[in-house]
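task queued by scheduler; priority normal; single chain, no ligands, no partner chains; default sampling; output format set to structure tokens
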Amino acid sequence: MLSIVLPTNNELGLDYLPRILERITAVQGIAVICVDNASTDGTAGLLADYADRPNVTIINLPGSNRAQRLNAGVRAAKTDRVLLHHPRSLLDVGALEALLAVDATVAWGGFTHAFDRAHPLLAWTSHYSNRIRLDRSGIVYLDHCIFFDRRLLGDTPVPELEIFEDTALSEALLAHGKPLRLPQLAVTSAVRYGKNGVWRQATMNQVLKVGYKCGIDHQRMNALYERGLGLNNRGNKPR
């Protein structure tokens, strides 16, 4: 059994959410927990269409950041293994079935990352994310769709930061061993790179990583990261 936690915040500017919901609700043995930030763009209505399904739980958490939505979902989960599903990453049914087949002794991990846009720098970014950051350093970003045993870190496993909450979660999970990278793809939207420019966004990402290591305030960093996009923050800006 597996619980999938899907945090949402005005997701209908892209076409990912309908496809995610269609896939994750179609697999036997999966409970789906959607935690929404009082979306105003029709996301809440789409989620409501699934509310009467026995394997789907909808939670409304206004004014929350993504980490808080993830934690609310983990607390609502009734299975030991939980998958934190990025709202702009796609896993196919085969990937979900592969995770269901993973031995229960595997503490945590993620899927193999790929972008939905072809570009040499994006291909290198995914390669680095898979082979260096995940395989060697044990840091798994949320767009890999992180899975773990919820008993390892208690009911509030995700540090409630505005940004880099996935890095902080990985650092905590590393105390329980290195992550497993499954070969199935988590195909992630390159919307930030499309709107900000590939090289500009890549440079910003590296600057923010240095900021995290240096302990710069996470709210200030997230304000820079979200400028003009409003994808992961507490607000409800339509895209």
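post-processing summary
- The two ends are 35 Å apart (CA to CA).
- The domain at 2-225 is CATH 3.90.550.10 (Spore Coat Polysaccharide Biosynthesis Protein SpsA; Chain A).
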